[in-house]
Design brief:
It contains two helices and no strands.
Length: about 110
């Protein structure tokens, strides 16, 4: 009978040792998982920072793109205005340098009389 109780006690001790070993393994796995989670969080923060930097660069590129288009439009309008001024100068030269407003007034005055 003492032998049976000693055997049961030894079995219980071995069972508890196994549970303690399993608990230690689980603690080690949990610590490794926590470390992996912290590493992943740091990586995620780094990726978020890179994403924000890239989004800022994209916004700046888009702003530059818009400014370039506005400048091109401005230059096109300036060139068109220059052509109109040249055309006007040519017409004024054909008219002998006379003022168009003065000619209009003269025509209106002649019609009125």
């Amino acid at each position: 009978r003492d032998v049976d109780s000693l055997t049961e006690l030894e079995q219980s001790i071995e069972l508890m040792r196994g549970r303690v070993a399993n608990a230690e393994d689980l603690k080690a796995k949990l610590n490794a998982a926590d470390a992996a989670a912290r590493t992943a969080e740091r990586d995620l923060e780094g990726l978020r920072a890179k994403l924000e930097a890239e989004e800022e660069r994209k916004r700046k590129r888009e702003a530059v793109h818009e400014h370039l288009h506005a400048n091109i439009r401005l230059k096109t309008l300036e060139a068109e205005a220059g052509r109109h001024e040249q055309e006007l100068a040519g017409l004024m030269h054909q008219l002998g340098g006379r003022d168009l407003d003065a000619l209009r007034q003269a025509v209106e005055h002649a019609r009125a009389n």
